[in-house]
Design a protein that fits this description.
- Strand 11 and strand 12 form a beta hairpin.
- The protein has two domains: 188 residues, Isopropylmalate Dehydrogenase (3-Layer(aba) Sandwich), CATH 3.40.718.10; 133 residues, 3-Layer(aba) Sandwich (Isopropylmalate Dehydrogenase), CATH 3.40.718.10.
- Helix 7 packs parallel to helix 8 and helix 9 packs antiparallel against helix 10.
- The protein contains eleven helices and twelve strands.
- The protein is α/β, with parallel strands linked by helices.
- A ten-stranded mixed sheet has the order 2-1-3-12-11-4-5-10-8-9, with helices on both faces.
- The mean pLDDT is 96.
- Bound molecules: 1,4-dihydronicotinamide adenine dinucleotide.
- 1,4-dihydronicotinamide adenine dinucleotide (NAI) binds next to loops.
């Protein structure tokens, strides 16, 4: 029996990497009934709102979505669709596993970090004001509720996955109230309910230096919204770049799976993009369906896909961002051949 899931192809490279991902899923026997909806520039081009009500309704109904990247104008124009979606469904925990993959040589071969980013507060609240011409402000919001629930999510994740330590990156020496709130809440959650999981803290600037010197010293990272956004990309750079890091946005009832990268307008429409990050996000989605809905066939498909892309990479089948020569669809073919 197939499972319903919403599909948002997105903008820029989104449609290409989505098409490649769907081909692999289908070949792996994943029985997903896709409900396709638009968001972002694609929705506007179709004469609809940037985040159409029909898209929101579909996610409300089906509870799970696979989403390609959506373009956001810089310094002007509409508010990020990605931020709007996370807010609309209260998807407060963004999870981005960052690991070395076979066949991709980087400076480090022992990276196994999970970045957990608070996804609904911080400077992404979008509360910006012009006080007077030449003076603008942006409000950083931290609530006890928001900090506590994401900290609980992070420790719970660490425990379930057998991870050793959750480290909070912060700048509470300067932002004593906001970053201080996350630190205090994380410590309380740890002491009350998760003393079996390690807990550590690190000031973010020095922590970034330590990350690029020796990432193997970190396990699960917990960060407020903006730090999580920046550090996710930094971590992607440790294992081969934005083309190989998947992501998921979790709330208590719904989840949207999407790659860490954006719509990459510089390479869009040229069959150059690496579809792997979105494919890996789809694998996370299949495992989520297995975990939350007892959909065990999805777990089997996920295992087959992971084994196949590992094998393709091991055989040197790579897109250009990884030093290979394959296009988007040729990489998908290479994965399908190894299923
Ligand atoms: P980007 O992630 O789209 O691109 C940064 C660089 O990485 C570019 O050189 C691009 O070609 C490369 N790259 C990204 N994904 C790749 C892939 N799969 N394969 C090969 N190369 C890849 O970030 P940028 O340029 O800052 O943002 C472009 C647009 O994407 C903006 O409108 C931004 O707001 C949006 N964005 C959307 C996100 C989302 O939908 N979740 C996340 C990040 C950015």
């Amino acid at each position: 029996m197939s499972t319903n899931a919403v599909l948002i192809p997105g903008d820029g490279i989104g449609p290409e990497i989505t098409a490649a991902t769907l081909r692999v899923l289908e070949a792996a026997g994943a029985e997903i009934n896709w409900i396709e909806r638009l968001a972002g520039v694609a929705a506007m081009d179709a004469g609809d709102d940037v985040l159409p009500q029909s898209t929101l309704d579909a996610i409300t109904k089906h509870g799970v979505a696979l989403k390609g990247p959506c373009t956001t104008p810089v310094g002007k124009g509409f508010r990020s669709v990605n931020v709007q979606l996370r807010k609309a469904f209260d998807l407060y925990a963004a999870v981005r596993p960052v690991r070395n993959l076979p066949g991709i040589t980087t400076r480090f071969q022992d990276v196994d970090i999970v970045v957990i980013r608070e996804n609904t507060e911080g400077l992404y609240s979008g509360v910006e004001n012009e006080i007077t011409p030449g003076v603008v402000t942006s409000m950083k919001v931290a609530t006890e509720k928001g900090c506590t629930r994401v900290a609980r999510w992070a420790f719970d994740y660490a425990r379930k996955r057998g991870r050793k330590t959750v480290t909070v990156f912060h700048k509470a020496n300067i932002m004593k109230l906001t970053d201080g709130m996350l630190l205090r809440c994380a410590e309380d959650v740890h002491d009350q309910d998760f003393s079996d999981v390690g807990y550590d803290t690190a000031i973010i600037d020095a922590a970034c230096m330590r990350l690029v010197q020796d990432p193997s010293q970190f396990d699960v990272l917990l960060l407020e919204n903006l730090y999580g956004d920046v550090v996710s990309d930094l971590c992607a750079g440790l294992v081969g770049g934005l083309g190989v890091v998947p992501g998921a946005n979790f709330g208590d009832e719904r989840a949207i799976f999407e790659a860490v990268h954006g719509s990459a307008p510089d390479i869009a429409g040229q069959n150059l993009a690496n579809p792997l990050a979105l494919l890996m996000s789809a694998v996370m989605m299949l495992n989520y369906l297995a975990d939350t809905r007892g959909d065990e066939p999805s777990r089997l498909s996920a295992q087959r896909i992971k084994a196949a892309y590992d094998a393709a990479l091991t055989d040197g089948k790579k897109t250009r961002d990884l030093g290979g020569e394959l296009g988007t669809s040729e990489f998908a073919d290479a994965v399908i051949e190894r299923l």
